[in-house]
């Protein structure tokens, strides 16, 4: 029933097929990172569009221990546990 | 121009007429989330088209909710990077954004100010007397100056002693005054106690004005009169001031008489608890509160800010009204554009879930405030937040400020990231 309503909405809105609802924290990443293919990455912050969930997860886990030469990602990644990171990575990788 | 539904995007006139005709017409023009009742599809009104309100309206429209954004100005002027405008490093054009992008996504924009909220009947009354009905209202009016809080300082005094704490004419006015100041002049800033919009903003401004003075008017002085004894990223700012602008900036904290208690715009005098200072140019950043409409709607408490539920952003004082951005009491989150944007998206998800009759999951939020202490020298403070004990609390072990010891290349990278953040967030919101 819920899926039916959701699908109906997407059809009505004519919006690009929206993926699953964003897991906690994922939409705060998009303040800095482009995540949708085709979305321009503005300048020095790397785009995450088209990255695999595995890549994003391993980068985040490395940042948590200070690896990867971060300026800010170590401070951010430490606020998420591994399950949260995997959920966010899946969501980003699923953006169309 | 065509909207995604193939219908023409309504122009300003049409929008207003549609609004005047009532929600039925608006509902026809746009897909809407079923409320499941006989009363028709759910309607959300968002008041305030700044960082918080615009991002929230856009996210709601993208998830299929019928949403009207109420904002008096067709052009939004962003505060982040406006300190660089004052210091002559950037034009004001780069600060300006419009609403075509959100209209393309299906947001109806009413270029009006909300003048009243009738919470009982769930109606927002606009300044032309027309009314918008809502199932849920999101308020994101930003801040207003508390002109009653500093004797001598009012809207007229802000012409002589600009605050430049809302970007636009005030920003350009302060820049002109800085440009007109003679070499050897004294520039005085008055900084308020917490809480206020953008905790590190005054110190970024001091840094960039010092950069201007050092390069153009090296015999001048910058005096910062502060109503606090400690401030955001303090060690990083002070180390940079020492290294880049030795002897140029004098910071006077509360305990040394920094609190400005009265101003005289006629003579350019700032009175503190310990004495008087004469300014050639004065930048007075007064105490602030939530935008007036939040007070009128009854969502602000005695502090002048709006208490909210940290999961749904719903007001603790009025049901069905959500408050986001600077106006809200967001626990550990500072009043920043970054936080406003993160809150907007979390609030949109919560509102959409509530309209479906379900319970929103607790959000997780991030904030990062970049500051420039020189054009190629950036520093940042970051935090991660989650609901705890009824507030948005810092997630332990995360966040913090840029390292105290770092090579110049690290500061250069953060300066570039600051610009990249601004470009990304404004494109996501207005683009
Ligand atoms: C000098 C300076 C530098 C800053 N630098 C940074 C930075 O580097 N990074 C950062 O993250 N933040 C920064 N900030 C803070 C940032 O600007 C604010 O936190 C942000 O604008 C808050 O968003 P908001 O949507 O709550 O309010 P705003 O962006 O101010 O938007 C409020 C909107 O509501 C509208 N409104 C008000 N009343 C009504 C009404 N009655 N009806 C309809 N509409 C109404 C207004 O017209 C306005 O468009 C800075 C601020 C300043 C002053």
Q: Which quaternary structure do these chains form?
A: heterodimer
Helix content of chain A: 40-55%
CATH class designation of the largest domain in chain B: Alpha Beta
Major sheet attributes of chain B: 5 strands, parallel
CATH homologous superfamily placement of the largest domain in chain B: FAD/NAD(P)-binding domain
**If classified by CATH, what would the architecture of the largest domain in chain B be?**
3-Layer(bba) Sandwich
Which radius of gyration of chain B do the C-alpha atoms yield? 22 Å
- Strands of the largest sheet of chain B, in order across it? 5-2-1-9-20
Number of domains of chain B: 2
Low-pLDDT sequence parts of chain B: 1-32, 34-38
Specify the helix fraction band of chain B: 25-40%
Number of strands of chain B: 25
- Please tell me the overall pLDDT of chain A: 83
Low-confidence stretches of chain A: 1-18
Main features:
heterodimer; A: 96 residues; mainly alpha; 0% strand; disordered N terminus; B: 431 residues; alpha/beta; FAD/NAD(P)-binding domain; 2 domains; 4-stranded parallel sheet; binds flavin-adenine dinucleotide
Question: How would you characterize this protein structure?
Answer:
The complex is a heterodimer of chains A (96) and B (431). With 96 residues, chain A is an all-alpha fold. The N terminus of chain A is likely disordered. Helix content of chain A is 47%, strand content 0%. The two termini of chain A are 24 Å apart. A five-stranded parallel β-sheet of chain B has the order 5-2-1-9-20, sandwiched between helices. In chain B, strands 13-12-11-17 form a four-stranded parallel β-sheet, with helices on one face. In chain B, strands 22, 23, 24 and 25 form a four-stranded antiparallel β-sheet that branches. In chain B, strand 14 and strand 15 form a beta hairpin. In chain B, helix 3 packs parallel to helix 11 and helix 3 packs across helix 12. At the A-B interface, helix 1, helix 2 and helix 4 of A face helix 11, strand 22, strand 23 and helix 12 of B.
């Amino acid at each position: 029933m819920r899926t039916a309503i959701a699908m109906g909405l997407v059809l009505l809105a004519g919006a690009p097929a929206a993926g699953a609802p964003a897991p906690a924290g994922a939409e705060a990443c998009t303040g800095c990172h482009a995540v949708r293919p085709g979305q321009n990455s503005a300048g020095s912050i790397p785009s995450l569009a088209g990255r695999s969930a595995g890549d994003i997860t391993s980068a985040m886990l490395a940042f948590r221990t200070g690896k990867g030469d971060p300026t800010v990602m170590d401070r951010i990644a430490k606020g998420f546990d591994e399950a949260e990171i995997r959920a966010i990575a899946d969501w980003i990788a699923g953006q169309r | 121009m065509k909207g995604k539904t193939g219908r023409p995007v309504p122009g300003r006139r049409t929008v207003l007429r549609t609004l005047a005709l009532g929600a039925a017409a608006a509902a026809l023009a746009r897909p809407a989330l079923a409320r499941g009742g006989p009363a028709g599809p759910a309607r959300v009104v968002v008041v305030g088209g700044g960082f918080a309100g615009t991002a929230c309206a856009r996210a709601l429209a993208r998830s299929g909710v019928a949403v009207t954004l109420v904002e008096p100005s067709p052009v939004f002027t962003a505060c982040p990077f406006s300190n660089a405008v004052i210091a002559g490093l950037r034009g004001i054009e780069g600060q300006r954004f419009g609403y075509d992008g959100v209209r393309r996504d299906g947001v109806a924009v009413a270029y009006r100010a909300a003048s009243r909220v009738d919470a009982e009947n769930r109606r927002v009354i606009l300044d032309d007397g027309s009314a918008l009905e809502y199932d849920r209202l999101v308020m994101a009016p930003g801040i207003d100056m508390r002109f009653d809080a500093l004797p001598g300082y009012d809207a007229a005094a802000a012409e002589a002693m600009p605050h430049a704490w809302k970007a636009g004419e005030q920003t350009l006015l302060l820049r002109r005054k800085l440009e007109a100041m003679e070499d050897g002049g004294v520039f005085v800033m008055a900084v308020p106690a917490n809480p206020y919009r953008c905790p590190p903003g005054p110190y970024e401004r001091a840094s960039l004005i010092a950069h201007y003075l050092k390069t153009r008017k090296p015999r001048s002085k910058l005096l910062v009169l502060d109503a606090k004894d400690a401030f955001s990223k303090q060690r990083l700012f002070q180390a940079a001031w020492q290294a880049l602008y030795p002897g140029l900036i004098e910071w006077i904290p509360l305990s040394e008489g920094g609190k400005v208690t009265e101003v005289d715009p006629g003579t350019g005098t700032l009175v503190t608890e310990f004495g008087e200072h004469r300014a050639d140019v004065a930048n007075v950043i007064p105490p602030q509160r939530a935008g007036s409409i939040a007070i009128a709607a009854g969502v602000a408490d005695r502090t002048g800010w709006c208490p909210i539920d940290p999961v749904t952003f719903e007001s603790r004082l009025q049901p069905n009204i959500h408050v986001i951005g600077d106006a809200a009491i967001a626990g550990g989150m500072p009043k920043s554009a970054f936080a406003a944007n993160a809150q907007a998206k979390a609030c949109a998800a919560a509102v959409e879930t509530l309209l479906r009759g379900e319970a929103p999951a607790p959000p997780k939020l991030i904030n990062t405030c970049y500051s420039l202490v020189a054009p190629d020298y950036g520093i940042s403070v970051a935090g991660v937040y989650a609901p705890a004990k009824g507030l948005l609390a810092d997630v332990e072990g995360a966040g913090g400020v840029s390292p105290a010891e770092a090579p110049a290349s690290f500061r250069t990278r953060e300066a570039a990231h600051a610009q990249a953040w601004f470009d990304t967030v404004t494109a996501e919101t207005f683009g």
